[in-house]
Amino acid sequence: MADQNTDEHHEAHVHGSMNIETQEKTFEGFLSLVGRGMAVCIIALILLYMING
């Protein structure tokens, strides 16, 4: 098994050079989902308060 640290076929990593467009879109979708979920929960709590209050 080849040691990855001595593998000559890989270029040296340059900080900040990786394409993170997919990760950014995924994170944006996650934040959108969390925000909408929180809004639904708050609205549901307000409605429950109004109905049972």
Separation of the first and last Cα atoms: 68 Å
Give helix and strand order, one letter per element, not per position: H
Tell me, rounded to a whole number, the average pLDDT: 88
Q: What structural class should be given to the helix and strand makeup?
A: mainly alpha
How many strand units?
A: 0
Please summarize the sheet with the most strands: none
Share of helix, binned: 55-70%
Strand content: under 5%
Query: Based on CA inertia axes, which overall geometry fits?
Result: rod-shaped
Uncertain spans? none
Rg over CA atoms: 23 Å
Number of helices: 1
Task: Explain what this protein looks like in three dimensions.
The chain is rod-shaped and about 70 Å long. The protein has one helix and no strands. The longest helix is centred in the last third of the chain and has 32 residues, at 21-52. The N and C termini lie far apart (68 Å). The mean pLDDT is 88. With 53 residues, the protein is an all-alpha fold. The protein has one helix at residues 21-52.
